[in-house]
Amino acid sequence: MIRLKVVVLVIACAHFAASDGNTQQGVKFSYRGPLASAFTPFNNDTARTLNLSVIPKYAEFLASKNVSGVLVAGTYGQGTALSIEERKKLAEAWLSVVGKTKQHLMIHVGGASLRDVKELAAHAESIGVDSLLVRPELNATSTEEITNYLELV
Q1: Which PANTHER family does the entry link to (predicted)?
Q2: Looking at the domain that runs over 7-11+33-152, which CATH code has it been given?
Q3: Angle at which helices 2-17 and 143-152 cross, to 10°
Q4: Angle between helix 114-127 and 143-152 (nearest 10)
Q5: How many Cβ atoms are within 10 Å of 71's Cβ, its own excluded?
């Protein structure tokens, strides 16, 4: 299990290592700087609905601390605990703010269902997020399997 985590981390680092502007398979990576894993705000109601109204102030706070990038719906953002529609709304809410704060927006689109992952990735691309974080399926055990999965997305 630890080996899988290391392999995934190595792939992620390889992509971010290309942040000097190098092109890798037709995609230009240009992000540099601290990236915060943002929490997902919820209302204090029985349905635990999203509280998207706090995102502008949260983004401004992070920007004031020189955080130049935001990861949305990752582990701390409880992305996989949200519905597909909630994840899309969350991505859209952050996108509406980061243009003003000049922050890089990375959206986590990983999940158990490849169909859902592809839908979230297509949505993120269509709205113009800066980058994606994709957690490969749980049973991938080699770099080749992880690469094959990411190519499907």
Answers
A1: DIHYDRODIPICOLINATE SYNTHASE (PTHR12128), N-ACETYLNEURAMINATE LYASE (PTHR12128:SF21)
A2: 3.20.20.70
A3: 60
A4: 60
A5: 21
